[in-house]
Amino acid sequence: MQCNVTGLMLNLLFLIGWSEAALCSAAPPPKRIISLAPAMTEIIFSLGLGQRVVGVTNVCDRPDEARNKTKIGGMANPSLEAIVSLKPDIVVMTSDGNPKAIAERLRKLGIRTHVFTSRRLTEIPAGIRELGQALGARPAADRLAENIEKSIRDVSMSHRGKSSSTNAGVGRKAIFVIWPSPLIVAGPGTILDDAMKMSGLNNIAADGKVAYPRFSLEAVIERQPDLILIGKGHADMKALSKEFLKKLGMLEAVRKGRICFMDDALYRPGPRIPAGMEELGRCGRLP
After folding, report:
1. Residue ranges per domain, the chain?
2. Class of 170-284 per CATH?
């Protein structure tokens, strides 16, 4: 009996010691964060961690506070020297925009990284939760993820089982223009394509061979989209699209003004996804 009690006590002491060691060895929440993608910057700020951000890319423009952070270069070609000089605890990246080689070089330099890999609409909440865990902000990440999940669920439910005769905009053929000349559109496997499908729109480029295929004007005319969506670029898209739309003047979508210039909320897998879904819904209901 005494041997059993002694063994039990030793096991308890071992477990207590192991638990304390595990707690001590857990990495503390990073206090100095660098973001290498606009969407990641938006997420980090939305988690309430803006004050910990010490560096961002040249294209990280949201929220406004991000514009005042130290710039470390572009998404594809950030300055490793600038990153190292800021002494980050973690560098947040995305697999859809940041070269894999950058992450590998940072790790060789002993710099911790987190790569956001979500590329589809329904994957975004899980990606945000993983990022929140890495940054020590899981409760805030859960709240943000739940908000996006609710938006996706509400949009999906509102169009489920409905036809164009019972719900305005449902079943319409649509094209999402990324750039008018050369014409580049949103194709399969993208957040934009996912959002269009959930909103009851049929993407005429859904059968593309790549995520963002080049399209010809002839193909657009042949497929007769009922709605033309044009995304926000780094230039005046209305001016850039003027000639493109003129060449499509025979389409009903152009004649009836079913052309919608959209913000970039659905370009970035972050906190503005619900706003982007709402905007897409309004565009889809154009008369």
Report:
1. 33-151, 170-284
2. alpha beta
